[in-house]
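task queued by scheduler; priority normal; single chain, no ligands, no partner chains; default sampling; output format set to structure tokens
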Amino acid sequence: MGKIDTVIFDFGGVLIDWSPAYVYLKEFRGDEKKMHEFLNTICSWKWNENQDAGYPLERATEERVALYPEHERLIRMYYGRWKDMLGYEHTETVALLERIKNQGKHRLIGLTNWSHETFPVALERFPFLSWFEGIVVSGTEKMKKPDAEIYQLTLKRYNIQAENAVFIDDKEENITAALKEQIHGLHHTTARELEKNLIALGVL
């Protein structure tokens, strides 16, 4: 195993909290079943991922309204109130990020599935994003995890040796994809587990 010199972080679910429930639970008057039905069918995660890959938000919204005109108000809310879905930072994980930064021994790179139209909101809200040497945003590149191309792009753009890098993500399929590119992968579940794993790799 090569010595780890680069730590690549996913953002949503690892460092940053984001959830449509912050907006829709109130709209459905606390009825979680109805809310999840809407978010699993009308404005689904798969639909949102399409925008993470660079599809224009306005076009996506208008197409969805055309399909489900009876839900127009709720559909327009998805990106119209996107800022309200962006929650807080995951403080314990950010604390680990800060420890790595302060050591000054590892390069920090971001690799996130995120719409290029909404990512500037996160940049403004979370100062710790400025700690990264570089950030690859799926919407800007028009490719997304877990596709191999976005990992290859990240390695090439920042001249990273795969065997010397570790990638942290909360989705197992994204970790599996990183491993296929010979990048060490850590599936993020809790900050405590992540700390143990980073210590084992010699990062902390």
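post-processing summary
- Residues 18-86 form one domain.
- The radius of gyration is 18 Å.
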